[in-house]
Amino acid sequence: MTSGDLAELDRRYIWHPFTQQQGWLSEDAPIIRSAKGTNLFDVEGRGYIDGVSSLWCNVHGHQHPKIDRAVRDQLGRVSHTTMLGLSHEPAIRLAERLVEIAPERLTRVFYSDSGSTATEIALKIAFQHFQQSGQPERTRFLSMRDAYHGDTIGAVSAGGIDLFHATYGPLLFETLKTTPGDVAELERHFEQHGNELAAVIMEPLVQGAAGMILHPNGYLRKVRQLCDKHGVLLILDEVATGFGRTGTMFACQQEAVEPDIMCVAKGITGGYLPLAATLTSEIIYSSFLGDHTEQKTFFHGHTYTGNPLACAAGIATLEIFEQEQTLDHVADLCVLILKLLEPIAELPRVKEVRRRGLMVGIELDGFPVEARAGHQVTLAARRRGAIIRPLGDTIVLMPPLAISADELRRLVDITGESIAEVSADAASKEEPRVRRAKVKI
Ligand SMILES: *Cc1c(COP(=O)(O)O)cnc(C)c1O
């Protein structure tokens, strides 16, 4: 089938996620046929750097021989078998590995298949835990403004991105919202509501979908302290930050904070297959134990929970972290990217560059909303051979951790050139303006 035929069929049949289909029709998005390492190739043979890790999940590159082999080997045994009433070796072995690398307090693994389900499960577990632990008044959740925990209704209730979430207001349960980084507000919430809170749910260190919003150092630890003081659980959503993305295996390790519940997904299979896990402490797990008649069972489970192919990919992904010393490689890349981003921060239309590990947000400045500057930058980058995807007017760079120094340099160069191109286009169309002072990291 020619690329034109495929594009035509796509337009006729597919409704793309987070996409205004009306604009999509004229856009000619690449149709990807294959990928190797950190590059994607479309049906016309053009190559692109995978600058956002196929939506933040690729870790060791595409077609990694070890993950490919693990999935193929598993295909030769069984592709799917349920975890309701049965078990299987890949799920068992992956759970053991996850508990080994997770913060010590986390001892149990509940599988599902996406980041959204991982956070839904965390919320339901925290709620049910208190219902059956003699504190049924603990029914509420505290979450961060501009948080993102997924797109299902519970996850959206804990979220705070108006553009994505406001429409569904009438469908959501109410959560308390606090401004990330504001310790005084946080303390106020705990003083007023500490005894009715079941849990705080948050993305540790970086709020990704909010536009790579960085929390001040020590904020996470402060949340942990207040949770301890008031007997509130801490749920950390490490769906984006987990598996080396911020430089340590999990972001919370940078502040030596242990959550009671931790959600992981995206990078868990190296970006190969849908899989997620919600890890809990032994105390929480134990509160679900009881005679059948007590009805303490956690009545939750998805058809593809703990899929064997995905678990096999997960085991291989974790092994590669050791074999290829991925975290050391990330540490080197962090030194490099800091330098590479300097000239970008100096571009006139860049307001701020935010980064933690290999999570980067470049916020553009002074474009009218209708200019869709972030989107224009991604189109310009695509013409130069890189796939990136913005969050509004914040350009996101989140390459696979395995990216080489040379390729990282090329990705950042392309990004800088694309921002400059879009800025020049805009400048040629508008009145000269007075520049505001910049905030930069
Ligand atoms: C992507 C993301 C989710 C949702 O994961 P899906 O697999 O897309 O459902 C949840 N939390 C965070 C922090 C994320 O970045």
Give the tally of structural domains: 2
* Overall CATH architecture of the largest domain: 3-Layer(aba) Sandwich
**How many strands, which pairing sense, and closed or not: the largest β-sheet?**
7 strands, mixed
Strand content: 15-25%
What does this structure look like?
This protein has two domains: 31-60 and 325-440, Aspartate Aminotransferase, domain 1 (Alpha-Beta Complex); 65-323, Aspartate Aminotransferase, domain 2 (3-Layer(aba) Sandwich), CATH 3.40.640. The protein has 15 helices and 16 strands. It has helices at 3-13, 21-24, 53-56, 65-75, 89-101, 115-131, 153-158, 162-165, 183-193, 219-230, 282-286, 308-323, 326-345, 373-383, 405-429, and strands spanning 32-36, 39-42, 47-50, 106-112, 140-144, 176-178, 197-202, 206-207, 213-214, 233-237, 261-264, 276-281, 350-356, 359-364, 386-387, 394-397. α4 (65-75) runs antiparallel to α12 (308-323). Helices cover 39% and strands 16% of the residues. The protein has a seven-stranded mixed β-sheet with strand order 4-12-11-10-7-5-6, with helices on both faces. Strands 1-2-3-15 form a four-stranded mixed β-sheet. The chain has 441 residues and is α/β, with parallel strands linked by helices. It starts with a helix and ends in a 12-residue tail after the last helix. The model has no long low-confidence stretch (mean pLDDT 95). Pyridoxal-5'-phosphate binds next to α6.
